[in-house]
Write a structure and sequence with these properties.
498 residues, 64% helix, three-stranded mixed beta sheet, 3 strands, homodimer
Chain lengths: 498, 498
């Protein structure tokens, strides 16, 4: 085999993988947006076949030979290509270590588990979900061994979502946060809460849609490359750096939900749209990790979107969209309302201060489940105990408790910590951004171009070219969770006059 | 190989083919509806890969061996499976006769030709399109030889769209129509045209959307299996018999456009939704041919939708949606307006009477192009001459002339006659339906369930289980074009008091 030919085959392999991803994404997008209600079966058939073909394509021994050959010639490869070979080699080896029958059995299981979870959540009955969750946990413990038998199982899973992160790292991270956030929250709870009743007035969906269009404009999202759709749960879906879709959901009595979901998903979209052209149609074309992705979405949502300068910038326009609903409300009052801190039951509705406490509950449970020190049957009790301990709230039922998230039913164990890491990465990026440039002057005028350019240069364009930890380090130096704790302390002390 | 194993492989092969079709359809649907504007490139990459993989899957010699084995055991096969083997064998042999490099070259050509055609149409400049059209014609002549070297090239192409139909058949069919329609049209043109000015009033798009919802209800289309979207050009896209999408386009000053496009595409959708469950995820799952498909869409659009009883049934509701626009208009006047016959330039805007004349122009030109008796450079002149001869109109430019349709740019030669055949099949089905049951009593009350049931039983459920001609014969006896001519004569004589 000649090097030239091998490089062509590498490019072709990655274009094929892109095509399968794009096809599955398109079917998923359709299924969650415009597809008629009773059509899941046919889509399931198509998605199942595509997943099987994708698996066959990538687990072919010829792929291994190609990657071996290219690795042997790595000194002659450009940096992106070398990195592609490295990443593909890792995925290939991992896939080959999973016996094909177990892989297929697990695919069937996760496919069914979503339905079972939905029914259990609707019925608020953990017992319905329990047998499936037991199988999912057992599979993940086994798969962790295939991923990296030298690691503790949960460390091997964590590494899948945020490479380089393990329990030692997270224990320290969460301990720091808990030490700082819990007393802060207690102090906050002793104060008079801000009035946020005006957020619950009736905000017509049509006006909210127009407001979303305006927000996308402020975020600098080019509509010829990024659309906004409507789904039950908001998400971002990327085809490539010229084609990204975000979605939101409009609640008439909850205008800040769509406002902040648009800014959050917009942050994900900025990342994907900012990845370099040269990485497109390769395995390096997406955001590098869940944690870094969340750092971008939360940067826009919380650090910018929930800042006073940003709200001051967009508030006059908001008053045009919602003149009656916001009559007599000032930007400062709006700022206080959308930053109201309050222990609550549901992670996705949590405020910036308490969010990480929700994540910690899940982290502790996953650690013990995968570590074998917690039985699945005891999850609800442990969940409820930890919510009481960390957040001080009583969980009334499983639907609002351990059945609230879809992650486990999709087979994701080790994913949750990325949310908290993302928040912390973001705070550190902001600190460095403030050292590099005037952030708040332009933001207070609704100009986010400087923020975009900084993140684009430091984070976005690199895609998967570096390790997640190196992307963070490149943007803001070695990770230091106290920066996030300092940020929260400063913000909430000021907000609540502590 | 055991028979049981071979049958499993046959089912698996067809599920894979289904998945590739569904994936490509989903990307196409997305591209024409919600995708952001500047995203064609990435979709093109994905669609190209999927087409290549689909080709590889189906042209694999193992597929040939499987089909040979099953054909040798055909006596032990159920009728649907036997038919699947027969159909797949035909497609496989045909695909194998096309050299792989020519197949790929043609795929690239048709992919580019669409863009070239669009630009040429915009500029109304046939010369821009000419070199591409020359290549497309040459490829089709060559491919016709691969399809069936024993046939004249255009016969081989016609056979692809409507099996069993050839030039001898169509010459006779079109001669009959021409003999009857041309004098009828002349007689009509001597009469005072009906007033249709109220159709051009301002019909707000939102009200039209609600009217479409109502029409889908009248058609008996289950919205949990069939949605309606909006695209530049209306179409129907089927995933399977539980998932069909139709689209329309709303023009504020042209309410009958969306009304009749919804009924037309609704007819296609009824067909696909009515195909038997047992044929799903096999090569027999779609409508059997273009001609039979058009017979269903035109049945609903013209024979039902443009009938006086149907209009009388829906008119009270129309007046609720458009009270000002239809003030003072009666159902009878509306009926006359949407049946106004008038020679025109654009096929897709033609009325029921003149439509087939538009098709004949294309048939004559294709016949000569593929037969080698007309050079591509002479297409515009011939087009304009035939429009004058058949329809009596002067073509002002290529954009409204030989560049108006996308078919040739997509590589379709031999497709147009199916439109006319569909109209004629439909008329004959109506005659037999009237013999079998009371059609117009229920229709005049807005009840189309009897019509649906008749077509479902006679046509829809069979999918691709029979030859197209046998489906028609099964529904209404041997094909007889005079039935369609009689129908037109009766309808227009009454409308215009001839």
């Amino acid at each position: 085999m000649e090097l030239k030919q091998a490089l062509d085959r590498l490019a072709e392999l990655q274009r094929k993988m892109y095509a399968y991803r794009a096809a599955s994404s398109s079917l998923y997008l359709d299924g969650t947006t415009v597809a008629p209600k009773d059509t899941a079966e046919g889509r399931g058939v198509a998605l199942g076949v595509l997943a099987g073909e994708q698996h066959k394509l990538f687990s072919d021994p010829q792929v291994g030979e190609l990657l071996d050959f290219l690795w042997a010639h790595r000194d002659g490869l450009d940096r992106p290509v070398r990195r592609q070979v490295e990443e593909l080699r890792r995925s290939y080896d991992q896939l080959r270590r999973i016996p094909a029958d177990e892989y297929m059995e697990y695919a069937v299981l996760t496919n069914q588990a979503g339905d079972v979870w939905r029914r259990a959540k609707e019925a608020s009955d953990f017992q319905l979900f329990r047998p499936v969750l037991e199988k999912l946990v057992a599979f993940n413990i086994k798969f962790a061994g295939y991923y990296d038998s030298a690691k503790a199982p949960y460390d091997a899973l964590l590494n899948e979502y945020e490479r380089g992160v393990d329990m030692a790292y997270l224990d320290k991270f969460f301990a720091t946060l808990r030490e700082r956030i819990v007393p802060l929250l207690h102090a906050v709870m002793e104060k008079e809460p801000p009035d946020d009743s005006f957020l619950r007035r009736r905000y017509p969906v049509d006006a909210q849609r127009k407001f979303s269009d305006y927000l996308m404009q402020v975020l600098g999202l080019d509509r010829s490359h990024c659309t906004i759709g409507e789904t039950e749960h908001p998400y971002t879906l990327e085809f490539n750096n010229k084609d990204v879709r975000i979605t939101t959901h409009y609640h008439e009595d909850n205008m800040d939900f769509s406002m902040y979901s648009v800014i959050h998903e917009g942050g994900h979209a900025k990342y994907e749209l900012g990845i370099a052209d040269e990485l497109q149609y390769t395995c390096l074309a997406g955001g590098v990790s869940m944690g870094v992705h969340e750092s971008q979405s939360r940067f826009y949502e919380n650090l910018i979107g929930r800042s006073l300068p940003f709200i001051q910038a967009v508030f006059p326009k908001m008053k045009e969209f919602f003149p009656e609903q916001l009559a007599g409300v000032t930007a400062e009052q709006f700022y206080r309302a959308v930053n109201k801190a309050q222990p609550s039951l549901i992670r996705t509705e949590a405020d910036e201060l308490t969010y990480c406490l929700h994540v910690m509950v899940r982290y502790e449970i996953e650690k013990q489940l995968i570590g074998g020190t917690l039985a699945v049957k005891d999850v609800p009790e442990t969940w409820n105990r930890l919510y009481k301990e960390y957040l001080g709230v009583d969980v009334p039922d499983d639907s609002q408790g351990c059945l609230q998230d879809s992650h486990w039913s999709g087979g994701s164990f080790g994913y949750f910590p990325s949310y908290a890491l993302g928040s912390a990465y973001g705070a550190q990026m902001l600190r460095n951004m403030e050292q590099d440039m005037d952030v708040w002057g332009p933001v207070s005028k609704g100009d986010l171009s400087g923020v975009s350019a900084w993140l684009g240069e430091k984070v976005h364009r690199h895609g998967g070219l570096m390790e997640p930890a190196d992307v963070v380090k490149n943007a803001c130096g070695p990770f230091d969770p106290t920066v996030f704790a300092d940020y929260l302390e400063k913000k909430y002390s000021q907000l609540y006059a502590l």
